[in-house]
Amino acid sequence: AQKITQTQPGMFVQEKEAVTLDCTYDTSDQSYGLFWYKQPSSGEMIFLIYQGSYDEQNATEGRYSLNFQKARKSANLVISASQLGDSAMYFCAIKSGGGADGLTFGKGTHLIIQP
Amino acid sequence: EPEVTQTPSHQVTQMGQEVILRCVPISNHLYFYWYRQILGQKVEFLVSFYNNEISEKSEIFDDQFSVERPDGSNFTLKIRSTKLEDSAMYFCASSEWRSNQPQHFGDGTRLSIL
After folding, report:
1. What is the DSSP letter of A85?
2. Helix, strand, or coil here: B102?
3. Which chain A residues touch B107 with a CB distance below 8 Å?
4. What separation in angstroms does the CA of B53 have from each of B36, B56, B77?
5. Do B99 and A99 lie within an 8 Å CB cutoff?
6. How confident is the model at residue A96 (pLDDT cuts 50, 70, 90)?
7. Is the pLDDT reported for residue B40 higher than 90?
8. Which of A73, A90, B84, B95 could form a disulfide with B103 if both were Cys (CB 3.0 to 4.6 A apart)?
9. How many Cα atoms sit within 13 Å of A67 on the Cβ side?
C-alpha cells in the first residue's frame, strides 16, 4: 500500500516569501510518480507539478519546484515569491507506474498568504 | 484548454434514493477516475476505468457503486441506495495513456444526502 504524509496542517507565510510544503511518501513500487495539486476555497483540484521516480532532475513549473529526495522519500513543494492567490489547500499525491492506478493523497496543507 | 466537466455541481437527494453523477472527460484521454472528498478530509480514490471496464477500485467502491461509459463522451458514477455517509464532493478525473501524465480533475459534484 502507498501512503503520503503531510505534517503541516496549516501555514502562514508573508507575501513574496518562498514557502516549502513538506511531503513524505511510502511505497514498495520501484516506478511511481509524485504529484502536487492545489485546491482553492472554490473547491476545484488544480494540477501543479509532477515528479517521476526515475527523473534525475527536480521538476519545475514556473514558480513551483519540487525538491525530490528519493533516499529520504520526500517530495517537498517549493513556491517562490508567494502571492495572495496562492492561499489554498495543497495536496501531495502518489501513483504507481500503471496507467490506470488511482492517486493516493495526503491530508493536505492549508496555506495562507498574508499581505 | 480542454477540461473535465461535471454535472450537476450540486445534488441533493433523499437517503435511499439512487443518484447518478455525470462527467465528460477530456476527449483524447483514455483513463477515467472517480474520487470523493468528505468535507474537511483528504481526497480518496474510488475507481479507475479503462477500455470500457473497471481497472482498479478501492474498498470504498462497494456494490452500491457502479460506473458506466454509456456513449463516447460521458462517464457516470451511480450510487444505488444512498446513505448519509455518502455526502461528499465527488470528483471525476481523466488522464492520457502514459503513466506520468497528470490526472485532470473536474470541478466536482457536491452530493448532499438528507
Report:
1. G
2. coil
3. 43-44
4. 20, 9, 13
5. yes
6. confident
7. no
8. B95
9. 13
For residue A70, the 8-state DSSP code is T
Type of residue found at A84: L
Average pLDDT score over residue span A51-65? 94
- What pLDDT was estimated at residue A99? 67
Q: In the A/B pair of chains, how many CB contacts fall below 8 A?
A: 73
Whether the CA torsion B85, B9, B37, A100 is positive or negative: it is positive
Q: What proportion of chain A, given as a percentage, has pLDDT over 90?
A: 86
Residue A111: Cβ within 10 Å count: 21
Mean pLDDT computed over A62-72:
96
Do strands A64-69 and B75-79 pair parallel, antiparallel, or not at all (unpaired)? unpaired
Which residue in the block uniquely carries the three cell numbers 495543497?
A90
Q: Fill in the DSSP letter of residue A80.
A: S
Count of residues making up chain B: 114
**Residue A101 per-residue DSSP state:** P
CB spacing of A102 vs B33 below 8 angstroms? yes
Q: Which residue's entry shows cell 500500500?
A: A1
